[in-house]
Design goal:
The complex is a heterodimer of chains A (117) and B (116). With 117 residues, chain A is mainly β. Chain A contains no helices and eleven strands. Chain B has 116 residues and is mainly beta. The chains are: A mainly beta (117), B mainly beta (116). Chains A and B meet through strand 4, strand 5, strand 9 and strand 10 of A and strand 5 and strand 6 of B.
């Protein structure tokens, strides 16, 4: 199956700093990428959907100025958590979808664990 | 509104036995897909099985089968011959034609523990 990578796999940052998480599709062109957030022992919550070359669409309640998403190419999307606070500590997962029409063609990355101290 | 419900926060099963994880869904869309994912402690989401709303036969993938009852809006996952490596969180998810099949709706998950 297709591979989606995330970098870094875990990161610790100080409160008030910004951190960038990369999501790459390694062997296909991802026309659409998604960012999810998962708190411990909870389900995945979609944060935003991004299409290459256009602005991301954020879900209700997600601060777009805090969670900056850039989908500059067909293989790379980035999520930047600006002015991070301890409550932003979470597991962030991206997924990517190519241009194909098969229902299962959406692949998840391995996730990035963010801890804000 | 689209909704996925998993009513079992945790399940135990003896190794080599079968286990059923429950999932019910709600959607007004006639065209949708139902998915099951496994999430081990490492955090990665592992795709297990898919059932389309128009598929007449229940999906099967190795030891995984999906008991699809459309009228009852349920899509239970059956794992046969459980193995210790099956211990993980399991999420039921749905995508509908709304939002062009892009948006996943996830259930709250079921934590499965396989006992030796």
């Amino acid at each position: 199956g297709a591979v989606v990578s995330q970098h870094p796999s875990w990161v610790i940052c100080k409160s008030g700093t910004s951190v960038k998480i990369e999501c790459r599709s390694l062997d296909f062109q991802a026309t659409t990428m998604f960012w999810y957030r998962q708190f411990p022992k909870q389900s995945l919550m979609l944060m935003a959907t991004s299409n290459e070359g256009s602005k991301a669409t954020y879900e209700q309640g997600v601060e777009k100025d805090k969670f900056l998403i850039n989908h500059a190419s067909l293989t790379l999307s980035t999520l930047t958590v600006t002015s991070a606070h301890p409550e932003d500590s979470s597991f962030y997962i991206c997924s990517a979808r190519g241009g194909g029409g098969t229902p299962t063609e959406q692949y998840f990355g391995p996730g990035t664990r963010l801890t804000v101290t | 509104a689209q909704k996925i419900t998993q009513t079992q926060p945790g399940m135990f099963v003896q190794e080599k036995e079968a286990v059923t994880l429950d999932c019910t869904y709600d959607t007004s869309d006639q065209s949708y897909g139902l998915f099951w994912y496994k999430q081990p402690s490492s955090g990665e989401m592992i795709f297990l099985i898919y059932q389309g709303s128009y598929d007449e036969q229940n999906a099967t993938e190795g030891r995984y089968s999906l008991n699809f009852q459309k009228a009852r809006k349920s899509a239970n996952l059956v794992i046969s011959a459980s193995q210790l490596g099956d211990s993980a969180m399991y999420f039921c998810a749905m995508r509908t034609r709304l939002y062009n099949f892009n948006k996943f709706y996830f259930g709250s998950g079921t934590k499965l523990n396989v006992k030796p």
